[in-house]
Design a protein that fits this description.
This protein is α/β, with parallel strands linked by helices and 414 residues long. It has 2 domains: 22-63 and 101-211, Rossmann fold; 67-98 and 213-409, Rossmann fold (3-Layer(aba) Sandwich). 45% of the residues lie in helices and 17% in strands. The strands form 4 sheets. Strands 3-4-14-9-10-13 form a 6-stranded mixed β-sheet, with helices on both faces. Strand 11 and strand 12 (295-299) form a beta hairpin. Helix 14 (342-356) crosses helix 15 (362-377). The protein is globular, with a radius of gyration of 20 Å. It starts with 10 loop residues before the first helix and ends in a 5-residue tail after the last helix. The relative contact order is 0.16.
Length: 414
């Protein structure tokens, strides 16, 4: 399929298909005993997503509890430093709980209440999904189990404390690389035993149908707001829209509003330490088609076709696959996917902090880094970045590992 074969005016109505496919990507590859549970979730979501009561309640929560709308901000000093195109940020870091994850977690929590569930189960990498879901559980009066890799627990200690303070049970996963993939594995196993009384709230646009659809829909508020706000600020559409891509929830939320516009859209993957296997988590750039965690998409594989070891300085990006909608948008040529290294992301992390007074999440820093590189090559124009989260969770780890004076040690002058 090519881009010319897709009608973007009706895109969200037609994709995914009724059985959860974006072209050949997506689906629901799950054990037979879980099929009734996922059919129940699908039916419940299809019922409430058209309910005026549900929509009204979600809007009230977003306004009164989350603090939406989040603003679009012009980075004047960073733009001047780069010396080219003007950089703007969609400030999802200003959401209650510190990231875009609260957008779908409050929706999933509301869905769980509608279904009469008593508990929500989830995985987390960087901890932002875990914090957001623990927040939703506290808000709706639900039990909450969060599965998290042992490596990420050490890297993201502040978020672990937040989850526990909010009443969630944080379950350490010590299998394999002890990061995001293993946390997803453990959460799925737990869900197999508890699905009658709980709902598995996936943290990105990944997993079996209907989760790529649901999470995209809940996150679409990001792009809808950003498009209107940018037009109001400048009178024009941005030339480029970009966001980081791990599983891909923040980016799909941002991109969905611009698919039918004459705007270049770029997803930014983590190149980590370099191009060698095990040194990055750039699933679209270096992966191939494969089934993992119940869906078909691009996947980084080892010699025997299983999910490969991956790495990124950003715990929320070190996942060996990517949401099926991203795979589809890549294949038809509507979205371009680029990569950013650890060092480039760290430079953006420190520079945005120093020049704009905004400490970004390391995940979001990948998108800022790409925007900085692109701005230096363009004399004019505008780049709109989804700043998906704030960096409170990363500060202790970054300062301990890289130091306050990382810019000076690298010879980078302001």
């Amino acid at each position: 399929m090519k881009i010319k074969d897709v009608d973007f005016e009706t895109y969200n109505k037609n994709y995914p298909s009724s059985d959860g496919y974006f072209g050949k990507f997506g689906g629901a590859y799950i054990p037979d005993e879980l099929k009734p549970a996922f059919e129940e979730i699908t039916l419940a979501y299809q019922t409430i997503c058209h309910s005026s009561q549900f929509i009204s309640e979600l809007r009230r929560i977003r306004k009164e509890f989350q603090g939406r709308p989040t603003p679009v901000y012009h980075c004047e000093r960073l733009s001047k430093y780069c010396g080219g195109a003007q950089i703007y940020l969609k400030r999802e870091d200003l959401n209650h709980s510190g990231a875009h994850k609260i957008n779908h977690c409050m929706g999933e929590g509301l869905l769980a209440k509608f279904m009469g569930k008593k508990k929500i189960i989830a995985e987390t990498g960087a901890g932002q999904h875990g914090v957001a879901l623990a927040t939703a559980a506290a808000y709706f009066g639900l039990e909450c189990d969060i599965y998290m890799g042992a490596v990420d627990i050490k890297k993201q200690a502040p978020n672990v404390s937040r989850m526990k303070l909010l009443g969630a049970r944080v379950i350490e996963v010590t299998d394999g690389q002890q990061t995001l993939k293993e946390a997803v594995d453990a959460a799925f196993k737990a869900y197999l035993n508890e699905y009658k009384d709980c709902i598995y709230c996936i943290g990105s646009v990944v997993g079996p149908h209907p989760f790529p659809l649901m999470v995209r829909d809940f996150q679409s508020i990001v792009g809808i707001e950003a498009r209107d706000q940018f037009m109001e600020m400048t009178g024009l559409l941005p030339d480029v829209v970009c966001a980081c891509v791990g599983g891909g929830s923040n980016s799909m939320g941002m991109f969905s509003a611009f698919l039918n516009d004459p705007v270049e859209i770029v997803g930014v993957e983590p190149l980590g330490r370099g191009k060698n296997r095990g040194d990055h988590a750039a699933s679209i750039t270096y992966g191939s088609e494969g089934i993992m965690h119940g869906f078909n998409s691009y996947m980084l594989k080892n010699e025997i076709g299983e999910p490969d070891e991956v790495y990124s300085v950003a715990s929320g990006l070190d996942y060996p696959s990517v949401g099926p909608e991203h795979a589809f948008l890549h294949d038809i040529g509507r979205v371009k996917y680029e990569t950013v290294t650890d060092d480039e992301a760290l430079e953006a992390f420190y520079l945005l902090s120093r020049l704009e007074g905004i400490i970004p999440a390391i995940e979001s820093s990948h998108a800022v880094a790409y925007a900085m590189k692109l701005a230096k090559t363009k004399k004019t124009g505008t780049i709109l970045v989804n700043l998906s989260g704030r960096g409170d969770k990363d500060m202790d780890y970054v300062i301990e590992k890289y130091g306050i004076d990382w810019l000076e040690k690298k010879g980078i002058k302001l």
